[in-house]
Amino acid sequence: MKADPRGVLTGTHFIDGDHACCEGALAAGARFAAGYPITPSTEVVERFASRVPTVGGSFIQMEDELAASIALQGGVWGGAKAFTVTSGPGFSLMMEHIGYAVMTETPCVFVDVQRGGPSTGLPTLPAQADMMQARWGSHGDYEIIALCPNSPQECFDLTIQAFNFSEEFRVPVMFMMDEVVGHMTEKVVIPPADQIEVVPRKHTHKSIGDYLPYATNGDMVPEMAHAGEGFRFHVTGLTHDERGYPNMTPATQDKLVKRLQNKIRSAADRICLFEEDGLDQADVVVVSYGITSRVAQRAIDVARDRGLRVGKLRLITAWPFPDKKIAELAASVKAFVVPELNLGQMVREVERAAGGKARTFAVPHAGGGVHNPEEILNAIVEASRC
Amino acid sequence: MAKGRVSIVVERCKACGFCVEFCPTHVLALSSAFNSKGYHPPHVVHPEKCSGCDLCGMYCPDFAIYGTKAAEARKAAAEKTVGGEK
Amino acid sequence: MLNVLQDETLNPVEPFLRTDRMPHIWCPGCGIGTTVNSFARALIESRVDLDSLALVSGIGCTGRVAGYVKLDSFHTTHGRAIPFATGLKMANPKLNVVVYSGDGDLSAIGGNHLIHAARRNMDLKVICVNNLIYAMTGGQTAPTTPGHATTSTNPYGTFEPAFNLPALVDAAGAVYVARWTTFHVRQLARSISEAFAKKGFSFIEVISPCPTLYQRRNKMGDGLDTMKYYKEKSKLKNGAPTGEVGLTLDGEIAVGKFVDRDRPDYQTMMRAQYVEALGERYIEVSGEAEPEMECTCG
Questions:
Q1: CB pairs under 8 A between B and C
Q2: Closest-CA residue in chain B for C186?
Q3: pTM score, two decimals?
Q4: What is the CATH number of domain B4-75?
Q5: What digits encode the pLDDT tens for the residues A192-233?
Q6: What was the ipTM of the complex prediction?
Q7: In the A/C pair of chains, how many CB contacts fall below 8 A?
Q8: Which strand (E) or helix (H) includes residue A30?
Q9: How far apart, in whole angstroms, are the C-alpha atoms of residue C7 and residue C56?
Q10: Where are the beta strands (DSSP E) in A252-340?
Q11: Contact assessment for residue B38 and residue C9, using Cβ atoms and an 8 Å cutoff
Q12: Domains and CATH numbers, chain C
């Protein structure tokens, strides 16, 4: 369905990634956010606080990230599309509730504007070092979806995509920005509402007597109901059966946790978004995401000018990881070069998926700034020689 | 004729003794019978003293007993004796 | 002779229970089930629309209440029932939201959320079953465990001062504060009804036995002994200054309604502020499902 025009600020704007993310959320239909201030993310909710009372929603600044990350889920079960925004230290605090959203299949978006870590680290400077945390930060076996924008325009477009995935799969989506993308100001075009596709809540059509909150009808995603509609359903973070009742047996665990995993994995082809260029005939493929992809572009261009056959694979979806794509490429390329603003996170996934058929060259960076394109170029040159 | 009657859901009882203690007219006592979990549920020893006040029901943590006023009990559907003596 | 009648439809509490999950897991002599009876009575007496009632609990023995009541119910994470409830209420202001949780859940890990919700005067009705212990996990010290009690993490006896919960929430801004014990079944039901009639943050503490852990380790008998103990030790002190109602190991238990005042709840204040600042531009949260929230597929 089309976006609600009340939330769509149609026009051409000159705004930063944080602000664009807020507009993306509003365009996607988000009408509730619970937040806690943390640099460099706070502007997202500051803008939301100012915009949302004029579009029929609300915002509350909670007392900590533990509260924010669960209040937004209360908002979802109360009927709204909801999200929160944070950075490293807050993301760490939110991990338990990300797990709760996975277990209860609460559709929602967690925005992490990554900054230098670990701990308090570099509040005002970029990193991409929460990528593994986005995937594995909570306890237990689970899958999430993570998207990485590389521009303010993408902060708008992909936030809508994040909400759409969250509603379709009833899963929390991690929106992995970084401080540079969040604070860089660029042109952002917001189209008219009727050109924006939004996925509505998968609300049940069953009658009150027939509805089972965690039963699936053919696909792997149950239909949802909201509090206050008379369904009298129960939601718990304990391992539960189709009635939503706690059922703590290995059999129920197996069935539930595997379904939570498979509902994402089985749709990986659709969820794994990426941008590719020059992959045919490539000797070396540069795999990057977020702000690093823009620096890498420079290195790729220079390398191509020198006659090297360099392909580009920009990950838009970081999780689930595009195993198939990498495995496919590994069969025909010599090497992957993986620059990232961390000391080696997504490169491990590339290496794993390549299965030894191609070499992997990491281009790490401890964070605090972006790569010098030279570093990436040098890695490309070295990779070409192998 | 008693003003009220007590109904007991035998299988829910955990024999905590609240109902026996707090019945204002001492209608109940713990029986020597067992339910399937091995607890001794209460039984009515002075039915004529029951006022149907439902204090037993208010106190019961297991939702295993309740009192009703006689007039309502008469309006209820056909009596069933289920569970029986064990 | 057993007088057994399976005519459960006449039990006033029965329509509120998920009967397919009975019998529940609470121990013999535990008082949580007793509080649920009072809660059910209050719902009947105050004629609350059950379809617009949501019950949120945390983790612990009392947290299991959410799973046993036939309402829209949410068993959330440890300590976080109150912020979840806040989110529910923000998204759908028409909901009547009850938080039903234990003393450890609400005042230890959940302490920060407790005081902020009270400060905000969030329209939530909080029922805090206080068994003076962390029961579910095996009887550890809670912030409410009185001094010189024996627990599994204070095997030589507690020595920390305990929270006086009524004083804490009173100081934080709650508009309705009461304490009863599981002996006071009718008074508790009445307090819960009064809380439903009020807008703002209501907090009702119910002292309850944990015969398996707290009472057993402290040689205080079983559930029934504890109920008689409550009857003996309780002193009705309506309107008492909350600073004076702290509990000790074997001292008096002050019960009653301590605070009942009026001040605008969070959403009333929010609305007033937005109306003043934005006038016509302010669009209130309707709580109605928006057209886009209805699935149009298939």
A1: 128
A2: B58
A3: 0.95
A4: 3.30.70.20
A5: 999 999 999 999 999 999 999 999 978 899 999 999 999 999
A6: 0.97
A7: 187
A8: strand A30-35
A9: 30
A10: 274-277, 284-288, 310-315, 317-319, 335-339
A11: no
A12: 10-264 (3.40.50.970)
